[in-house]
Amino acid sequence: MLVKCPHCGTRPVEEFTFNGDASVQRPASNDPKSMDQWFDYVYLRDNPKGRFDEYAHHSSGCRAWLVVTRDTQSHEIFNVVTARDYAKKRVAP
Amino acid sequence: MTGFRLDRGGLIDRTAPLDFIFDGKAFTGFAGDTLASALIANDVHLMGRSFKYHRPRGVISAGSSEPNALVELREGARKEANTRATMIELYDGLVARSQNRWPSLGFDIGALNSLASAMFVAGFYYKTFMWPKSFWEKIYEPIIRKAAGLGTASKEADPDKYEKAYAHCDFLVVGSGPTGLMAALTAARSGARVILADESAALGGSLLNENEEIGGMSGYAWAMAGIAELSAMPNVIVMPRTTIFGWYDGNIFGAVERVNDHVLEPSPYEPRQRYWRIMAKRAVMATGAEERPIVFGGNDVPGVMTAGALRTYANRYAAAAGKSVVVFTNNNSGYHTARDMKTHGVHVEVIIDSRKESAADSSGIPVIRGGAIVNVRGGKRVSGVELADHRMVPCDAVAMSGGWSPIVNLMCHRGAKPKWDERIASFVPPDVGGGFVAAGSAAGRMLLSECLADGARAGTLKGKTPSIPKCRDEAFAVTPLWWVKESTGKAFVDYQNDSTAKDLPLAAQEGYRDIELAKRYTTAGMATDQGKLGNVNAIAILAEATGRSMDQVGTTTFRPYYTPVSFGALAGPFVGRHFQPVRKTPLHDWADELGAVFVETGLWMRSSWFPQEGEDWLSSASREVLATRQRVGLCDVSTLGKIDVQGKDAAEFLNRLYCNTFSTLDVGKARYGLMLREDGIVFDDGTTSRLAPDHFLMTTTTANAARVMSHMEFCHQAHWPELDVQYVSVTEQWAQMAIAGPKARATLQKIVDKVTLDDTGFPYLVAKEISILGGMTARLFRISFSGEHAYELAVPADYGNLVARAIMQAGEEFGIAPYGIEALSIMRIEKGHVAGGELNGTTTAADLGLGKMMSSKKDYIGRMMAAREGLTDKNRQCVVGIRPFDVADKIRSGSHILKKDDAPSMAADQGYVSSVAWSPMLNMWLGLALLSNGRERHGEVVKIFDGVRNIHMFGVICDPMHYDRENKKLHA
């Protein structure tokens, strides 16, 4: 599998470390009432068949965290952006 | 004598004889031979014994699908087991041995298994060796392993080199037969970057084996011209001896190139094998088709082989497998063999065609239509065949053809399943999209003209498909015959696993109707050949037994590797220290000079203790502790992770990473920090110093250095990209050493420039950039892990050894001693400082006695989850000190703690001992433990139970800080 790092270009997948679902977002609140959100954020993950956004660390490359959009069935990669851009585009919770 | 070398023909070089040894006996072959062809030419047909019944077996195929002729190739450290004789290129001095026979190939005691074959039906392992249960491990398994072994691996280290390589191309062609050559030529002529790979030593595929005509010349001449053209083109890489073994995501192909398997010893400058990863924009599977055996009695007797193999040996290697041949076929291809053998002057007794009618050309050879072989006579060699009508036909070789199966494996490696094609009675490859297409006989096209046209089409990457050269076609027709049910002898479906035709209906009858289950129950399709020849027959027999169609039964899963790949190729150059390199600290040489004993922690070599004459590790470490606590000691702490953090938001970043606060830290000061995971458990700890308002230097534990760095990168980039902060690991840039003990200040004072190390100028927790030894940049931190008045001094890595020596010199008058991580560990346990045993991924800050560090004024990683009920329960196990009740007792790490009068049980468990050390200060074994509600239990007498040694003793719970509880020495 090849991953196109926005900084380094197309690189073999072995250079990357994957870290699961990128769609979950860290809650902003420290209010005890937000505990359910925190549980969901820390523990609950979907395991979708098909399109999936997941974190990938270019650990043996430029060290950027990326979000790779991949089909979990065919492994086709649709899109790769930096986690930074992904976070900035995301609406605040 | 029956197998022999033909007088004329073949692609062997008769002027280059090669001597080789098989099973200790000397033979001669020619350049161009394989081991199999050379043995056949020398009339050696018996090449091995079968797996279960130890039946004599000879070669069945002429290629990589071979299930029988597996040998141990080479000797000593270079010995390779289970190598197919059909794929071994002959070289001068080759040595090979047959496998799985004892005491000799000709006389094999295990063949008695054959007589007890009722016991060896499908699922026999499960049925026979079930009872008594205790017999499995000690009696049944060792016997089965001995009886059913394949070849044995060499136990010596492989002396040869292996390489890994990457390649990129516009078009990868897998297979160099007519289809592959046509595809490669078409693509290459249009300027594309082409890689042409073939598993054989010689390119040309079937054109090397068959008498074809293409473009007005022989198929062989056409192939050679095409290969010459391709080899001369700069945009083409031709890779013979290269097996494309797998197809992976992103159109990446795995391949092994056997660079030097065909020579006695590889040149020291070349690898034996090269492991390739080929990134192809497009690829064509031109892998051809595999001829199938027919399942009939005695279809495994040496001398029975596929029809295509028999004529390949004759045409390509000038090796005739017999003087008198019987052909048994259900399709036209058997006739081809009969005619070729006749041309070579070999007598063909009869063609037995299972079809009642056929239009194939028999060239005057007698044909029995609608016939079948029910048994082959002969033990170690064919002596004749019995037909269904009870006729006996004497012969010494049998050529069988059950039709042709496209070699679909690669295209199915990513999960797609092949489809059944009734027309050619075969599974054909699935459509997997435009990046990888099948062509030629691999796609089920059985005529040469179809193959060439298909290859040209596949190779047309742009523009119009070129016209193809004229060629001669041989019509193909097949009527399935899978299993001759009237067979009187054992009829094998899978040769390598000794699965017979009767095993599959039995499996179905016992409920294993699914092909995947039947495979595992009968073992058909397993082992080194993965059923390349036998699978389709197994599917057909199972289909019939269960009243289903071939499509309904389907195939088992195709997985890489297509053929076995050596561990050497997979490992490549990454063996030994190239697999696990050594990380030496900047003080390594200094420690080595002083006789340090090193211990590997992760990749690091750390100085563990510095023994003097006659000392063991404990007496050395104890002496080092005493020297440090009474005078001064020097320890290498360079392995700690060091991360330089800078930027406007550096303090805010650290606030969010650590549970305690760093924004309040004064410039020039150090503070201990505790980092949690998001689930509230402690992740890492270390001191962080503020060198400037926007500049911090973090330290991490040695073990977590890389993990903390990744964590920071994640938190910054994914959570808080708005923070203006940069950070980089500087672990390797700085040598760091701890100078500890009452004389630490006096020692250091002698090497620092200008600074006065008193409590006003350099009090506890000061961290400053200074200069030492007359101008060398250094960072000095007044921090202590040992509990002594101590400093950590960091200098640029290259000066590490020099500075350590200078400190030793400066401290000589005070009796300085180097100390290793054993002494360091003893001192931290004496002081109750937590380390790996306590920071173990289960403990909270409160468990470690550090609950007060958790800020309530800010958000940080882990804050919310750390507040969960279960993580704040008062009965959680928390860190305590523990000492033996009888000070002569030795506490051991890992022992469990029970109430004084309780018997050991899970229910009674109160916690466990996490770290222990012999304390030279207190003269006893003492430790740290994790104990339920431990802080309330100081003074309690408990039972310490060591389940490994099944002993117990009594202990007393105490404050974790065993030594100098008032920290007088720290501030001295």
Tags for this entry?
heterodimer, A: 93 residues, alpha+beta, Folate-binding fold, four-stranded antiparallel β-sheet, 6 strands, B: 972 residues, FAD/NAD(P)-binding domain, Arc Repressor Mutant, subunit A, Gyrase A, domain 2, seven-stranded mixed β-sheet, six-stranded mixed β-sheet, 21% helix, elongated
How many helices of chain B does DSSP assign?
Answer: 24
Report the mean per-residue pLDDT of chain A as an integer. 94
* Radius of gyration of chain A (Å): 14 Å
State the major sheet of chain A.
Answer: 4 strands, antiparallel
What would you call the structural class of chain A? alpha+beta
From the spread of the alpha carbons, the general shape of chain A counts as globular
DSSP strand count of chain A: 6
Give the tally of structural domains of chain A.
Answer: 1
Query: Oligomeric state of the chains?
Result: heterodimer
Percent range for helical residues of chain B? 10-25%
* Binned strand content of chain A: 35-45%
Q: Using the coordinates shown, work out and report the CATH topology of the domain at 164-291 and 403-476 in chain B.
A: FAD/NAD(P)-binding domain
Number of strands of chain B: 52
* DSSP helix fraction of chain A: 10-25%
Low-confidence segments of chain A, ≥5 residues, pLDDT <50?
none
C-alpha geometry of chain B: elongated
Biggest interface, and residues per chain? A-B, 32 and 22 residues
Biggest β-sheet of chain B: count, sense, barrel? 7 strands, mixed
Q: Helices and strands of chain A, in N-to-C order?
A: EEEHEEEH
